[in-house]
Amino acid sequence: MDRAKLTERLGIAGSGAIATGLARLAGPHGDVSLWARSDSSAERARARLDGVAKVTTDLAELDGCTMIVEAIVEDPEAKAELLRKLHDLAHENTIIASTTSSLSVTELAQASGRPERVVGLHVFNPVEKMALVELAFPEQASEDTRARARAICEELGKTAVEVPDTPGFVVNRLLFPYLFDAVRLMDETGLEPKAIDQCMKLGAGHPMGPLALLDFVGVDVSIAIGESIGADVPERLRKLQAQGRLGRKTGAGFYEYDKR
Q1: Catalytic hit among 33, 101, 102, 222
Q2: In what order do the strands lie in the sheet with 67-70?
Q3: Which of 34, 67, 78, 250 could potentially form a cystine with 246 if both were Cys, beta carbons 3.0 to 4.6 Å apart?
Q4: Strand, coil or helix: what is 70?
Q5: Exactly one of 33, 104, 125, 172 is catalytic; which is it?
Q6: What is the pLDDT averaged over residues 31-40?
């Protein structure tokens, strides 16, 4: 389905999978700029975007954006620091969104300096394929902020569901205890990852098994989300992290991957 031009001039602060996926989705439909922290990150982002969005290493170049999406590592201090910088450079009416999947939007909003113009915009990876966006608002968010956040989701072809600002929102709060149970079941029974994944794909109709999904999300990211929502993180995951087996992005996790 053809989509209309974006009503927002969109800035994206970050250069990982979520950030570049969002830029690829939005770029053909509007004015999109992506900020990367380093020259090497910028080069990787340019290769992924193939010209659909502007890539810069100068954060100040996002100053003309009407909505800026923070999409960096799931670390509260790093996010808070970046949000404060975005507040300082952005116009007073610019909305600042965070793609956090598990942190408190209220606390991030307070750290930003403009809580009335902040929204949690939790998009899912791969961004172009996943239909859902979880929207979480701090109590201070203005009606304009709420309306524009819903509008950008619709313009991006997403289904927005407003969720409470609780750790993990809805999806991760329910999903990660299940994923961690799959790890514990593997340890308790000696089953291979493939066997557990096949059972859940063929028996429950899931598009991806739980252990393959942990590899896709990233072992380190999964641990961080688990800790944020107060879930019991399996020791096997911590051992994989210590070994540098973080999943697809490192070429090994529960499975081995060809990194070519």
Answers
A1: 101
A2: 54-56, 32-35, 10-13, 67-70, 95-98, 118-123, 132-136, 159-162
A3: 250
A4: strand
A5: 172
A6: 97
Which domains, ranges and CATH numbers included, belong to the chain? 10-162 (3.40.50.720), 171-250 (1.10.1040.10)
Residue 102 known to be catalytic:
no
pLDDT (tens digit per residue) in 183-203: 999 999 999 999 999 999 999
pLDDT tens column, 64-89: 999 999 999 999 999 999 999 999 99
Assess contact for 21 and 77: CB atoms under 8 A: no
User: 3-state DSSP call for residue 198?
Assistant: helix
Considering the candidates 41, 134, 155, 222, report the single residue annotated as catalytic: 134
Burial 74-103 (b: 16+ CB within 10 A, else e): beeeebbebbebbbebbeeebbbbbbbbbb
Name the token pair of 248.
């697809």
Interval 114-139: pLDDT, tens: 999 999 999 999 999 999 999 999 99
Helix 210-217 / helix 219-228 crossing angle, nearest 10 deg:
100
* Positive/negative CA dihedral, 193, 195, 196, 199: positive
Given 112, 122, 222, 228, which residue is catalytic? 122
- 134 is a catalytic site residue: yes
Phi, psi angles (nearest 5°) of residue 18: -65, -45
Any catalytic annotation for residue 122?
Answer: yes
